[in-house]
Specification:
The chain is an alpha/beta fold and 723 residues long. 25% of the residues lie in helices and 22% in strands. It has 13 helices and 37 strands. The chain has a 20-stranded parallel β-sheet that branches. An 11-stranded parallel β-sheet has the order 4-7-9-11-14-17-20-24-28-31-34. The chain has a two-stranded parallel ribbon with strand order 21-25. Strand 35 and strand 36 form a beta hairpin. Helix 8 packs parallel to helix 12. The longest helix is centred in the last third of the chain and has 25 residues, at 534-558.
Length: 723
């Protein structure tokens, strides 16, 4: 879904036509994701906060001593004694709810310790009343109000179970032996379990947050934050959401059961915009985390300058995703994510059936999230390792990517109008300079074989993208190769638009709406198989038209031509392979390119056979054959540089003209076919210009003689007559 930034070799009319085509085809509803008030990125003057081991300033605990002792009974003795000491202190001078302790913070640098227990924050749960029940604010596409910061301060529990607003250098830590010993539970009654807004230097450690209608832990507009050993689970959208923030660190975290992603560093500070691969620092680091059984493990809409290393993303629908597809996110288009040494495997879950059967139409508390239900919020190709939809300058190196039913790496581009930008100069700004090198594909960390369905799926758009040598199956079959140094690319291309069939597939699959329980027909992301898939339907429709037109052309003009008949047989085989190559199991093999080769030979042979009788149709047919052979070369041998469009686009346009011309040529009547067959390359007499019917006033002498009666004596030859 995209183009390159500069296009001096392409007329503006061509680009306008392509954009108009996309606008007509893009019938999907407006993109929906995280919608927030307008925010600006931090100025970068902050720093990553450090953990403070000092005794807590404030304590939070419950009053049920029996429950507390049960929760701490299995702790190591030293930790159990410390918790008992803190509990005695908390009973006399502590708080019963985390929000009460946050409200008591009166200076930067304070520590809050939360003792083992279940915290449902009962005072925060009731619906808003009075002024807070009648706030005037725009509604998001998902139905919640997009409140200003001032409205969040005034009505902090309209959307948040615990609201941390404007507190600086605050540390909140659970004192249990494991992160599940302290649980903050929104009971599906709040948008967010914990919201930290404009709270630079916030540090979260060792607890669980769960069961919201949006996200468990939300950090917004912070210059400095740490999420350390925290678990989030069972949310409509995200486990962890950090937005428009800088100097962030996720460490040893876990997230599962989320309808969008477990980890979402959205609109991370865009500090490396305009740079190449060499950058001075990253805005957010994510390490030692595991995100599993979500729609996608990691999501990065405008996830700029994020360093993701030594994590595990598994058992999701997709392992990780970077994109530039949603409006309202500062820092678009996405750029400069760096993934290395991650385990990205077995992301083959398929949760769309919960949308189709009505499970996701129930209230969140009744859906069964705790039993493994996930309600996917956006379109996602299940069975994929790393998805990049409109990102630039991303580096994927030394990761283990294996066990995916669809593809290890998925790259497509996104035109700027999808995210709401209409400038012509913006339309070509995505899917450039993404580097995939040194990854271990199709094998786990022990070296055991765990192949992906294919290693690479690419729509073909963008410039400067490259892959390591030797993917085990890719589409296209040939890929630009990465050199040793970042930025070195061999066999690169710079295409304005990707392959037409792939573009159609992306547009069809984007028409997903979880609220309307609508699964797009024809898309295998949602379960379409065989003839249900739009790619196979297109291949069948094209094959049917070409078979009909080509068959009639052969029967009327070429059936007595050996060359024409041989070419027709090649075309028949090519059409059959083209349909077969559109299936999921063969699309990344050599079959599609072989089909193009046979079709190219068909048109070439047909053009040669038509030369004598239909010279202009022959020229058009030879051009179509050449373009088809060029397309096969482009897909299987080497992506042709210097051309702004794939040969498939020009071939498709020429094919439309050829079909119309061939129909006319086949429909025109001609004389009876000759008695003897034509030789190779010779057009049949029936396709030649007919001889005019009527008296021939100037027949030659030999013709006159042959018409005389044979019974007469031969006349004496006259001078000048030839025998």
């Amino acid at each position: 879904m995209s183009w390159t930034r500069r296009f001096p070799a392409v007329p503006a009319a061509l680009l306008a036509a392509l954009l108009a085509l996309l606008s007509l085809l893009a019938a999907a509803p407006a993109a929906r994701a995280h919608e927030e008030r307008p925010v600006t990125l931090p100025d970068g003057s902050g720093s990553v906060p450090r953990y403070r081991a000092a005794e807590p300033d404030l304590l939070v605990c419950k009053t049920d001593r029996a429950d507390f002792e049960r929760r701490t009974a299995g702790f190591p003795e030293q930790l159990r004694q410390r918790n008992l000491t803190l509990y005695e202190r908390c009973q006399s001078s502590g708080y019963r709810h985390l929000q009460e302790a946050v409200d008591a913070v009166d200076r930067p640098g304070m520590n809050i310790a939360v003792l083992p227990g279940l915290y449902e924050e009962e005072p925060s749960l009731p619906r808003p009343t009075g002024e807070c029940a009648h706030l005037k604010a725009p509604d998001s596409a998902l139905g919640y109000q997009i409140l200003s910061y001032e409205q969040q301060v005034r009505c902090r529990h309209n959307q948040n179970l615990v609201a941390i607003l404007g507190k600086k250098d605050l540390q909140i830590e659970g004192t249990g032996a494991a992160r599940t010993d302290v649980v903050i539970d929104a009971k599906y009654q709040k948008l967010n379990a914990i919201r930290a807004d404009r709270s630079d230097g916030v540090y979260f450690r060792n607890f669980t947050a769960q069961r919201t209608t949006f996200n468990s832990l939300y950090v917004l507009a912070a210059d400095g934050f740490v999420i350390d050993d925290v678990l989030t689970r069972w949310n409509d959208e995200y486990g962890f959401l950090t937005f428009a923030s800088d100097h962030g660190l996720y460490r040893n975290c876990e997230s599962y059961g989320n309808g969008d992603s477990g980890i979402y560093p959205g609109s991370a500070s865009n500090i490396n915009d305009g740079r190449g691969y060499d950058v001075p620092r990253y805005s957010i680091e994510i390490t030692g985390c595991r995100s599993h059984h979500n729609m996608v493990g990691y999501s990065g809409t405008a996830g700029d300058s994020v360093w993701v290393h030594d994590n595990e993303f598994d058992q999701n629908m997709g392992g990780a995703s970077m994109d530039s597809a949603f409006p309202g996110h500062p820092g678009l288009p996405q750029n400069h994510a760096r993934f290395e040494r991650n385990l990205i495997h077995d992301n083959n879950a398929d949760y769309y059936h919960y949308v189709a059967d009505g499970t996701c139409a129930k209230p969140p508390a009744a859906r069964g999230y705790e039993q493994g239900v996930v309600c996917p919020q956006i379109s996602m190709p299940p069975g994929t390792g790393i998805i990049t939809a409109g990102g630039n300058w991303n580096v994927y190196e030394n990761n283990w990517v294996y066990g995916h039913r669809r593809a290890g790496f998925f790259l497509s581009a996104v035109p700027a109008f999808i995210r709401g930008e209409e400038k012509w100069s913006k339309q070509t700004d995505t899917s450039h300079h993404n580097r995939y090198a040194g990854n271990i594909l199709g094998k786990d960390a022990s070296g055991a074989s765990r192949p992906n369905g294919s290693d690479v799926w690419w729509d073909g758009q963008g410039r400067g993208n490259c892959w390591q040598h030797g993917p085990d199956g890719s589409t296209p079959g040939t890929l630009p190769r990465c050199g040793t140094a970042r930025g070195e690319v061999s066999g690169g291309s710079a295409r304005l638009v990707g392959e037409p069939v792939k573009l159609t597939q992306l547009l069809v699959c984007a028409d997903y709406n979880v609220q309307a329980r609508k699964l797009p027909a024809g898309c295998d992301w949602y379960g379409a198989r065989g003839l249900e898939r739009v790619e196979t339907q297109i291949a069948l429709a094209v094959a049917a038209v070409l078979l009909l037109v080509g068959g009639v052309l052969w029967a009327r003009r070429l059936r007595r031509s050996r060359l024409g008949t041989a070419a027709a047989l090649l075309g028949l085989a090519g059409l059959a392979l083209d349909v077969a190559g559109s299936t999921m199991s063969l699309t990344h093999t050599a079959v599609p390119a072989l089909a193009l080769l046979l079709l190219g030979l068909w048109w070439t042979g047909t053009g040669l056979a038509l030369r004598a009788g239909r010279p202009w149709l022959a020229r058009l047919t030879l051009l179509l054959g050449a373009l088809t052979l060029l397309d096969a070369f482009d897909k299987a041998v080497l992506m042709i540089p210097w051309i702004p469009l794939s040969p498939a686009w020009i071939r498709a346009l020429v094919a439309v003209v050829w079909v119309l011309w061939a129909v006319v040529a086949s429909a025109r009547p001609g004389p009876p076919a000759p008695a003897r067959p034509s030789g190779p390359g010779e057009a049949p007499a029936g396709d030649r210009t007919p001889v005019p019917v009527g008296p021939a006033p100037a027949r030659d002498a030999s013709a006159r003689r042959s018409a005389r009666p044979t019974t007469a004596e031969p006349a004496t030859p006259r001078q000048g007559d030839e025998q």
